[in-house]
Amino acid sequence: MAEQQAANRNSDGKKIVFKGGKVEEKDIVIFTRQFSTMIDAGLPLVQALEILAAQSDSKNFKPIIGVIKSEVESGSTFTDALALFPRVFSGLYVNMVAAGEMGGILDVVLQRLAGYMEKAAALRKKVKGAMTYPIAVLSIAAGAVGVIMIKVIPIFDKMFKEMGATLPAPTQLCIDISHFLVPYGWIFVVGTIFGLVTALKQIRRTDKGMLVTDQILLRLPVFGTLIQKVAVAKFTRTLGTLLASGVSIIDSLQITAKTSGNKVVEGAVLKVSDAVTEGRNMADTLKEQNIFPPMVTHMTAIGETTGSLDSMLSKIADFYDEEVDTAVGNLTQLMEPLLIVFLGGTVGFIVVAMYLPIFKSVSVMGG
């Protein structure tokens, strides 16, 4: 069914793009690496695709490989067949394959693609790991404070009412918050989270909204540096891989900009692309963009001078991958004491606030 849907044509004679389920990145990496090995071994494209389709375990990816095989059999290039599935094969992937087909080095390009995708996935995993720890600790802290507010504070409130005590401002504040959270606690929490997520999604649907939020993220005290290093690592890795595969520098810059995932970086790379089109060298234009550190511009200049820009960019990417590792480790170490201080301070404030009326009553009785 999926194969028929992808192979059909509409009234204008254009092929209908396949609209199946999501294909996992690991399936694409395995396909790319195995396909490269088969091409290097001398197997014809159609036969290699037939073998890969037969052995694929992915119910979403299997029919797509089948359609690609059918397209190649009917006379389409491998690049044109891949272009039918933009949700599966990115512009970077398709353009690199096109360069590989034109240069007769498809197996080499596919190996580079597989390596690039694996390193990009590892980079994303590091960033997710850095985000998971503070979110988990904050969630636990919020849960603990919530339990105190909903279950413990009402007991103190009842006791204070029976005592007829005059409540200090901190105590009254905690009790007022508890009064609000007891009937509306879950609605407030869920509503706040849902509202913030929805608002952020709406803002990031527009180019201007994405640019503003990306600028804010890059200026954050601790996370901003990490985000910048991730962006530089992705930029240099993508551009270096494209150039090494034979894609022209203008096309490489355009593709890198579109796949950057950050509007600030995208705008900077597009400016570099325009400057290179006008005949300027890339290093000078990179220096004018605040997003790129001096090391990147200096090493890019050396790469342009020596004619080894692709390998120099790969070295920069390797360096910043290690920098991301270090930044993630430092971030985790920094967040631990900050979160402990936050949790301890919050719980401490509530405890002191609850015992202030008791201390006051004892003091009055003693007097």
Summarize the structure.
This protein has 15 helices and no strands.
Q: Would you identify the regions where 5 or more consecutive residues have pLDDT less than 50?
A: 1-14
How many structural domains can be distinguished in the coordinates? 2
Largest sheet: none
CATH topology of the largest domain: Receptor-associated Protein
Query: Distance N terminus to C terminus?
Result: 88 Å
What number is the mean pLDDT?
A: 82
CATH arch. level architecture of the largest domain = Up-down Bundle
Helix proportion: over 70%
Provide a descriptive summary of the structure in words:
The longest helix is centred in the middle third of the chain and has 58 residues, at 106-163. 31% of the residues are buried. The model is unreliable at 1-14 (pLDDT under 50). The N and C termini lie far apart (88 Å). The chain folds into two domains: 2-89, Type II secretion system (T2SS), domain F (Receptor-associated Protein); 115-367, Up-down Bundle (Receptor-associated Protein). By secondary structure, it is mainly alpha-helical. The protein has helices at 2-7, 25-40, 45-55, 61-73, 78-82, 91-103, 106-163, 169-203, 207-218, 223-244, 249-258, 263-277, 282-288, 294-306, 309-366.
Reconstruct the topology from this structure:
Layout: H1 2-7, H2 25-40, H3 45-55, H4 61-73, H5 78-82, H6 91-103, H7 106-163, H8 169-203, H9 207-218, H10 223-244, H11 249-258, H12 263-277, H13 282-288, H14 294-306, H15 309-366
Helix pairs in contact: 2-3, 2-7, 3-4, 6-7, 7-8, 7-10, 7-15, 8-15, 10-11, 10-15, 11-12, 13-14, 14-15
